[in-house]
């Protein structure tokens, strides 16, 4: 019998999946994407993956949840025994047992029945509940509400880290110890001299006046009998804002760093003890971290190190007593999205002397994080590290595109042997590092680049026979990873690093094929909702660190598109239910304020960053290249109405469905009356975006669709010489728009071009990430970040859904029913892609062999796939058997010139020939 594996996934309704652990029956293998402690919801959702024979479908499950491992081993589901439930549902199964208790661990497993057999019980998975009731927080917020004498609170602030410690005594054997902490802006936690956890830059950033994240750690093994020290270091992060007393109308500030901590100890003799943050702690600001600022860097003076400060033997009599400070204002919530961590190590490829005492180090890859350094010298020697993405022609570091971000780390030696250092509370976007004042001669052996991003699994992989596409995909991976920092940011290097909504509209969808980003984006939807004003306005940046409420449609529209992505890709409709009221409020707000004659009249950004006519420009000045803002706003609003109609249908809001239908029809009529030219069959000034949006959003009268699409292809092929001419908005729908209307070859040309403007042009000019501008190597440095992803549009979606043929059905979502319809473009000889869905691994790999196509497919258990074969290929066999004779394969007919079949789970190897 084939060995059976069940992977268990715990999904917590925050409202979306919050952390994942996968467990194999062969050996217990927990892939912790987030510490499984401290969830603060009472109805977690449970999911599992099944590995079984071909055409396997789950027919029933049984879940046991127990209060102890011993009870679970005895099959005593004292917390919840679901009984045998006859269903094929294996994701987002709502916990329906006894009420969960704060600060309590739970153990669970699942048994599955399939159409083939009864499976054995899975291995155990565990979760723990954090603090459910705010009244259970006994700890107090503590801090120091003023700068120290050596600090500077200015536009270019310098604020040293704050060090806090508390001694306590443990007299009994510890059964369980749990620490709950929120340190703002950022913290590091130590117990008895050892750092707790491998996370960095924690907790996740929020608008701290609305929401504050706390983290939970099992510290049982860290508590020792006798004296103990719990200690923290507080960095500035987004709390003490990088630019103080500067543009207060634009930049939101929160105050000086502060902390709340509660340590719960349960002893084996039944006694309990709680250690809390209060004014019995000790505080010092005169430690080695002299300054830490996300834009400007970190300065560390090793000569100021306080040896043993985080151990019981240290004398803290000269330290200050911390102040009891006002809470930041936001609700304390358990952080459900993944920690930021050091995820990769990059070795530098060279260190070259630029001039005496100044060296340039090349990491070989644009990245986000920091460098870890080894250095040996005298006390007081200092090393200065400046970071940049590229070099000037003369080899010097290029920093103009950083604006006023200083992006410099400084390390002052203590002079005791070989010293190692990395920063704690900053990160940089860089490929190159200028090293100055280094004692001796630096070499590649003295440095490592540590790549820092959210601990999200890479769940997709794609490679083709075209090297340009492969490199663009690799660059996209690096760009996406660089800009995951507890929220999706626009860039990691200059004085911005903001969570712009417009950058992630369709981008989040593409990213979901590469990374398991469900929890990150569920958290971000909460950030967006928290930033909504009482009148309904949604900002362009959320959390709203910048006060940008421009009331356009396309940027706030990301709120809707991301919620739809979480449902479509991960099967999670809870974000839609949670945020529906806020979405409706914004729809009403925009309609009431900006709709005139059934058109939305407000737009700010247009088709942001179309390729300009001159490579030195940022934005095109040619009106024929730019698309009417009212057209963009109205078409986008119409698209959002379509989404809202689907959301309302899902939630049973029939009155809203009728309302959206009525508004949609009026808008479509007004839109076509205003913008459609009956003589030329084009919209507005006939840009690709002007025609593409109404065509893709189904606003074009049926009888005119073919002519409108002809205008799109004619514009691309003839006027633009088969090159891209769209900006951020048009590019979100471009590749699928071309392919869905029968022109995948044109889409392939755009994807594989190497000259300006194209993604390949970036590669040909040395890019290892994605640029902010199509001409990012020549444009004005005010806006030419070399690590942006907004111009990816729907390219990654197209890679997976159209080149590889891995797409979820729109009704049986989360890849329960997989649509496998590759574009077997003639210029490609092979595509090899995989994607790990909620149900398991999906694979699609095809290659040309003379006039035949070999196509290997893997479909997870409990899923099915609809597969499309070219109709001009008459012979389809699977392992030398004709597809028509194979058991479990269903012929669905011919569609759009393709033979269509439905298959069940399993691994298949097809050969398609004439």
Automatic annotation (TrEMBL):
Domain Alpha-L-rhamnosidase six-hairpin glycosidase: 459-803
Molecular functions (GO terms): hydrolase activity
Keyword match Cell membrane: no
Domain of life (superkingdom): Bacteria
Pfam families found in the cross-reference section: Bac_rhamnosid, Bac_rhamnosid6H, Bac_rhamnosid_C, Bac_rhamnosid_N, Ig_Rha78A_N
Domain Alpha-L-rhamnosidase C-terminal: 811-882
Keyword Hydrolase: yes
InterPro entries, per the entry: Alpha_rhamnosid, Bac_rhamnosid6H, Bac_rhamnosid_C, Bac_rhamnosid_N, Rhamnosid_concanavalin
Record keywords, A-Z: Hydrolase
Alpha-L-rhamnosidase concanavalin-like domain ranges (all copies): 353-453
Bacterial alpha-L-rhamnosidase N-terminal domain span: 173-343
Protein name: Glycoside hydrolase family 78 protein
């Amino acid at each position: 019998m084939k060995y059976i594996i069940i992977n268990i996934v715990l999904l917590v309704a925050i409202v979306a999946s919050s952390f994942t652990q996968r467990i194999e029956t062969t050996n217990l293998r927990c892939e912790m994407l987030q510490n499984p402690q401290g969830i603060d919801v009472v109805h977690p959702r449970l999911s599992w993956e099944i590995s079984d024979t071909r055409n396997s479908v789950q027919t029933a499950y049984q879940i046991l949840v127990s209060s102890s491992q011993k009870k679970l081993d005895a099959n005593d589901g004292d917390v919840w025994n679901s009984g045998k439930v006859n269903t094929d549902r294996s994701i987002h199964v709502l916990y329906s047992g006894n009420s969960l208790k704060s600060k309590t661990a739970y153990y669970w497993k699942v048994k599955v029945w399939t159409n083939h057999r009864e499976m054995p019980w899975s291995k155990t998975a565990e979760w723990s509940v954090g603090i459910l009731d705010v009244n259970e927080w006994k700890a107090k917020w503590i801090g120091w509400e003023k700068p120290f004498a050596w600090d500077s609170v200015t536009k270019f602030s310098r604020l040293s880290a704050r060090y806090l410690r508390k001694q306590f005594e443990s007299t009994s054997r510890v059964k369980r110890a749990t620490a709950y902490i929120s340190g703002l802006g950022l913290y590091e936690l130590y117990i008895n001299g050892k750092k707790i956890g491998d996370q960095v830059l924690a907790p996740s950033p929020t608008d701290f006046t609305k929401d504050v994240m706390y983290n939970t750690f099992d510290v049982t093994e860290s508590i020792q009998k006798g004296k103990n020290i719990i200690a923290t270091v507080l960095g500035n992060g987004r709390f003490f804002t990088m630019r103080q007393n500067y543009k207060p109308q634009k930049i939101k500030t929160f105050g000086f760093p502060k902390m709340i901590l509660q340590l719960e100890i349960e002893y084996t003799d039944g006694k309990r003890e709680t250690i809390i943050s209060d004014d019995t702690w000790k505080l010092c600001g005169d430690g080695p971290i002299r300054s830490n600022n996300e834009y400007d860097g970190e300065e560390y003076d090793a000569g100021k190190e306080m040896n043993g400060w985080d151990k019981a033997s240290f004398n803290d009599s000269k330290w200050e007593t911390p102040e009891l400070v006002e809470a930041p204002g936001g609700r304390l919530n358990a952080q459900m999205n993944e920690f930021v961590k050091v995820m990769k190590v990059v070795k530098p490829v060279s260190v070259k002397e630029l001039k005496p005492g100044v060296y340039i180090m090349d990491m070989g890859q644009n990245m986000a994080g920091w460098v870890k350094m080894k250095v040996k010298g005298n006390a007081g020697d200092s090393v200065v590290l400046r970071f940049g993405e590229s070099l000037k022609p003369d080899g010097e570091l290029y920093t103009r595109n950083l604006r006023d971000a200083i992006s410099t780390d400084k390390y002052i030696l203590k002079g005791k042997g070989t010293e190692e250092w990395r920063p704690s509370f900053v990160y940089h976007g860089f490929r190159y590092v200028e090293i100055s004042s280094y004692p001796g001669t630096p070499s590649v052996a003295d440095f490592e680049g540590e790549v820092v991003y959210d601990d999200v699994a890479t769940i997709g992989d794609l490679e083709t026979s075209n090297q340009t596409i492969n490199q663009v995909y690799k660059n996209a991976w690096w760009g996406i990873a660089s800009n995951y920092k507890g929220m999706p940011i626009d860039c990691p290097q200059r004085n911005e690093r903001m969570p712009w909504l417009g950058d992630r509209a369709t981008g989040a969808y593409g990213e979901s094929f590469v990374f398991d980003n469900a929890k990150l984006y569920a958290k971000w939807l909460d950030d967006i909702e928290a930033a909504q004003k009482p009148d309904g306005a949604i900002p362009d940046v959320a959390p709203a660190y910048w006060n940008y409420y421009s009331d356009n449609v396309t940027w706030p529209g990301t709120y809707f598109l991301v919620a739809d992505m979480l449902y479509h890709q991960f099967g999670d409709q809870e974000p839609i239910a949670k945020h529906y009221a806020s979405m409706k409020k914004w729809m009403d707000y925009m309609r009431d304020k900006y709709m005139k004659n059934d058109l939305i009249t407000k737009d700010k950004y247009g088709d942001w960053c179309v390729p300009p006519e001159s490579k030195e420009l940022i934005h095109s000045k040619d009106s024929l290249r730019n698309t009417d803002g009212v057209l963009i706003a109205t078409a986008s609003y119409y698209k959002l109405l379509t989404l809202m109609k689907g959301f309302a249908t899902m939630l049973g809001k029939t009155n809203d469905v009728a309302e959206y239908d009525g508004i949609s029809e009026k808008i479509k009529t007004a839109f076509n009356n205003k913008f459609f030219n009956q003589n030329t069959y084009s919209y507005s000034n006939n840009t690709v975006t002007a025609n593409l949006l109404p065509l893709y959003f189904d606003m074009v009268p049926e009888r005119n669709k073919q002519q409108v699409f002809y205008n799109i292809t004619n514009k691309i092929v003839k006027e633009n010489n088969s090159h891209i001419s769209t900006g951020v908005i048009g590019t979100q729908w471009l590749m699928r728009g071309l392919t869905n209307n029968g022109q995948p070859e044109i889409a392939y040309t755009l994807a594989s071009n190497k000259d300006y403007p194209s993604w390949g042009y970036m590669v040909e000019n040395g890019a290892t990430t994605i640029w902010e501008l199509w001409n990012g190597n020549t444009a004005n440095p005010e806006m030419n970040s070399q690590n942006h992803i907004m111009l990816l549009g729907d390219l990654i979606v197209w890679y997976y859904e159209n080149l590889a043929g891995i797409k979820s059905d729109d009704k049986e979502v989360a890849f329960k029913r997989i649509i496998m319809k590759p574009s077997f473009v003639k210029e490609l000889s092979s595509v090899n892609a995989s994607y790990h869905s909620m149900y398991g691994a999906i694979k699609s790999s095809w290659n040309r062999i003379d006039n035949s196509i070999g196509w290997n497919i893997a479909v997870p258990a409990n899923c099915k796939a609809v597969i499309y074969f070219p109709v001009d290929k008459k012979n389809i066999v699977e392992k030398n058997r004709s597809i028509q004779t194979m058991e479990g394969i269903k012929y669905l007919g011919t569609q759009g010139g393709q033979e269509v079949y439905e298959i069940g789970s399993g691994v298949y190897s097809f050969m398609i020939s004439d």
